[in-house]
Design goal:
single chain; 272 residues; alpha/beta; Rossmann fold; six-stranded mixed β-sheet; four-stranded antiparallel β-sheet; 24% strand; binds adenosine-5'-triphosphate
Amino acid sequence: MTPTAAHAETSDAATPDAPTVLTGTDLVRAFGKTPALRGVSCAVRAGEIVAITGPSGSGKSTLLLCLAGVLVPDAGEVNFGGQQISRMSESERSRLRRTDLGVLFQFGQLVPELTVEENVALPLLLGGARRKAALRSASEWLDRFGVADLGERYPGELSGGQQQRAAVARALVTEPRVLFADEPTGALDSLAGEQLLTQLTRVAKENGTAVLIVTHEAQVAAYAQREIALWDGTVADDGLTSAPTAGARPGSRLFAEYDDSQPVGTFDDEKG
Ligand SMILES: Nc1ncnc2c1ncn2[C@@H]1O[C@H](COP(=O)(O)OP(=O)(O)OP(=O)(O)O)[C@@H](O)[C@H]1O
């Protein structure tokens, strides 16, 4: 995937004065005896696009899932808008995910039995919206992702890139304040991945939605304004991607550091 002028524009838009919407403090999480997070702290501002990077097994997905309220940390706190997510019940966290937090995975997981438009309308319907209004919103969101004409089709009739754009529309239809995306372009070819990221970052910027993207691809991380690099369950680095000339930059600074240091065989292995 080659960085483009569109992504340079997005990367330049830092949000230093925007309020913090989400914080994770001293997050610890293990799976049995395997530690995944060993005390991770981070904060995300409104409208900020943040890449969570690091080698395989460094804890990226676990951090994302803890911040999204899908997983409960063993210790530490997640705060969203003054609410301690990590202390909420499962039903309270589910409600929050239907309203303020959007989650998107590598494979969009559209419901095959529903049309694309019904899929996108689903979070609104689950939230109690009327069918007609929900379908109208779904159609508008599909339009923003350039797939409005596919609303009547079923997911199986769409390409992978089209399905993932519909999945992004579904994740954003409730206008969440934070969108959590785990390898959102992982199943797409370079062009489809780049189109998706360009649209996703543009729409997020328009809506003031913060986006956290887990990725092991430098080209994807280069779409972010900030990069949180994990290493063995801890934060190795957290900083702006310093991208005034992002279009000329093949990858993010932190990935460049990985390339230089070389001990992370798993990262190179993954690039294959
Ligand atoms: N459900 C689980 N059960 C057991 N161990 C898990 C589970 N999820 C994660 N782990 C372990 O926790 C550690 C961190 O995993 P995590 O998936 O968060 O890393 P990651 O950086 O996202 O990796 P990748 O890039 O390979 O997806 C790894 O050692 C992993 O094997």
